[in-house]
Amino acid sequence: MFPFENLQDFEIKISEDHELFRRTVREFAEKELLPNVQRIERENSIPDEIYQKAREMGLMGVGIPEAYGGQGGDMMMTTIANEELSRVSPAFMVRIGANHLFTTPVLIFGTEEQKKKYIPPVARGEVFAAHANTEPGAGSDVAGIKTTARKEGNKWILNGRKYFITGSDKASFLVVSARTSPPPSKKERWKGLTFFIVERDWPGVKIGSKINVMGLRGEQPNEVILDNVEVPEENVLGKVDEGFKVAVTTYDRGRVGVAAQAVGIAQGAFERAFNYSLQRQAFERPLISFEGIAFKLSDMLAHLESARLLTYWAATLAEKNHNLAVTAASLAKMIATEVAEQVSSLAIKIHGGAGVEVQTGVERYLRDAMITTIYEGANDIQRLMVARDLVRKLVGIDIQLS
């Protein structure tokens, strides 16, 4: 049982409302996304009409309280949406997820005025939002942020360069991290960071070039350049010099979403491989009749369902604010993303030569799966976090792991 203390800690509750919601999202994905997958891959852009359909359905506001213009719903509902959308188009899910990387910290750490001003238009799908933290020299190492913010009267002046910022090319609002004071010591590098809410049309905010990454065609990241951007005092998010807490709290919740994304990718790859094994003939027999193929499919399903259960469990603990929810999120993210990579690779092998042909659309699952093992904290970072949490739970002390 260690580090858990009660068998009820492993309980997963899924209601009829969750299942009805899943069917609704799947219908949207099948009807609106699936016919456009090849177009999205080819043009590296998601058609505006798909976003409009999503707005009409309220998909932009899932998980956001109704008081702020959202559709409401718990962590499980958001997880299900991420999975079902990613089964067809991970890129579309990532665009919606970028909104949540903005709304989550604002809902948790923002003032009431900030919530009322910035959350409703995002929840209603009127505007997009993004989260600008990663830099060329700072990804998993949040404390390595070099962007600066200096105080001048009742405003802050931001300067720096953000990198790999998903959705920034469409975003009207961004949450941006910056160093507002130097760290007191090497052991306390995480101190002195602050988050700000920045509006895209403010002077000095520039969206740089698109970064042509191998996967997620249709929603690829951009640079964000901050050149003497003036941010009013009322747009400080949370407490000055305590932005590290804003970052890690956001990512602790975001990791469950990435795990769900990976489950969706694995589900899509498995379905393609299974259907192909039934239809494709070799030596006058369907592929699935060969032991080598049958074993691969069985392993794929076993790993897929294990990852799904782990992800749903992490979502349940996150909803409960369980004291080991962060550990569960790290485990789910670590396992589910590696399962997605493995299942996608096996799907390609089952398809043989057709698996590496771009036109068949099988190889894209592996391209899309690769990034999930890296963003929201690379998987080796998750392993370090789990080990650290175990030591804290057993011994009651924090240790430095590297």
UniProtKB/TrEMBL annotation:
Keywords: FAD, Flavoprotein, Oxidoreductase. Residues 15-126 form the Acyl-CoA dehydrogenase/oxidase N-terminal domain. One of its GO terms (molecular function) is flavin adenine dinucleotide binding. It comes from the Archaea. It comes from Metallosphaera prunae. This is Acyl-CoA dehydrogenase. PANTHER family: ACYL-COA DEHYDROGENASE, ISOVALERYL-COA DEHYDROGENASE, MITOCHONDRIAL-RELATED. Its cofactor is FAD. Residues 131-229 form the Acyl-CoA oxidase/dehydrogenase middle domain. Gene3D superfamilies: Acyl-CoA dehydrogenase/oxidase, N-terminal domain, Butyryl-CoA Dehydrogenase, subunit A, domain 2, Butyryl-CoA Dehydrogenase, subunit A, domain 3.
